[in-house]
Every structure is written in structure tokens, then in C-alpha cells.
Design a protein that fits this description.
about 170 residues; 9 helices; about 0% strand; flat
Length: about 170
């Protein structure tokens, strides 16, 4: 069970962390490296702080909680920087709640899949497929890909191009 909980938690939290990457890039291009450093310092501080506080009581689970909390803190700080830099409005950030709800749902779903299938390789395959679908949904809702991006990456493969445009680009 600890390995399953760790895997599901790390996948879900890393999907959330993917939404911070454009903010890092924007801040670097705009010469605001100190904000990036602040996000990274927050991440490291929260990870180590929570790990040392929780390790004796929770053991292995302290790693999971510390890592997830650190990513959530970096995510929150990135959103604050997005609003202050004019990249996003507060209203746009509230739309991201759908992503958080999706990640929470995914974690519960993954645990339910594992429990109902009684573990094993088949449950891992189903969990991987569910996480892949959720990742594609996150990319779509966060509007990571424009029609031009899909053309650039998949234009040479017409069938794949049509499918990826349908899956990744929000109309």
C-alpha cells in the first residue's frame, strides 16, 4: 500500500506541477529570476521542514506529504506571481479549481481501482491509463497547446494531428 499511495500521490502532484512550468519560463524571459528562486526555495524549505517534522510520526508517508505540500506551495506562489505580473486574473485562477478537483478525483479513483482489482499488474495498467487521460485533460483545460503547437508537433502525421487537435486544443 505505501508504494501505491506514493505512486498515485507523486503522479497527481507532478501533474499539478506541470502547470507551473509556463510561469517559470515567463518569469525567466522577463528577467525575474528572483521570483523563480523564491518558488524553488519555498519548495525546498517546505519539503525539508515538513519531512523533519513528520518523519518520526509518519515514517515513509512523511516524504509523500512533504513533497505534495511543497508542490502545492510552489503552485500557489506561482499563481500569486501570475496575478501580480498580469499573466492571469483572479477569475482565471478560480477556473483552475477544476484541475485540483480532477487531481483529487483521480487519486481517489486510482485507490478505488487498486482496491477493486485487488492490486497486481492489471490494476497498475488501468491506473496508468486513467492518469494518462487526466494528464491530457489538464493539458486541454490549461490550454497548453495552441492549434499552431499541434501543427508544429504532429503536422507530418495527419491522423495523429487530427486526434491531438481534438484532444489537446480547447475550442
Amino acid at each position: 500500500l505505501p508504494l501505491l499511495v506514493a505512486t498515485i500521490s507523486f503522479v497527481a502532484v507532478n501533474m499539478l506541477a506541470l502547470t507551473v512550468v509556463p510561469t517559470y519560463q515567463f518569469l525567466m524571459v522577463k528577467g525575474q529570476q528572483m521570483k523563480n528562486a523564491a518558488m524553488q526555495l519555498t519548495n525546498v524549505t517546505v519539503t525539508f521542514g515538513l519531512f523533519f517534522l513528520l518523519h518520526d510520526a509518519l515514517g515513509f508517508y512523511a516524504i509523500i506529504i512533504a513533497y505534495a505540500a511543497a508542490i502545492l506551495c510552489s503552485y500557489t506562489l506561482a499563481n500569486i506571481f501570475k496575478v501580480r505580473s498580469g499573466i492571469s486574473t483572479v477569475g482565471q485562477l478560480f477556473q483552475q479549481r477544476r484541475i485540483l478537483v480532477l487531481l483529487a478525483f483521480l487519486m481517489v479513483m486510482d485507490l478505488a481501482i487498486d482496491r477493486s482489482m485487488r492490486g497486481g499488474m492489471s490494476s497498475i495498467a488501468v491506473i496508468i491509463a486513467a492518469n494518462l487521460c487526466a494528464t491530457l485533460l489538464v493539458f486541454r483545460f490549461q490550454r497548453y497547446f495552441t492549434p499552431q503547437d499541434v501543427e508544429r508537433y504532429f503536422g507530418q502525421f495527419p491522423a495523429l494531428h487530427r486526434m491531438m487537435r481534438t484532444v489537446l486544443v480547447q475550442a
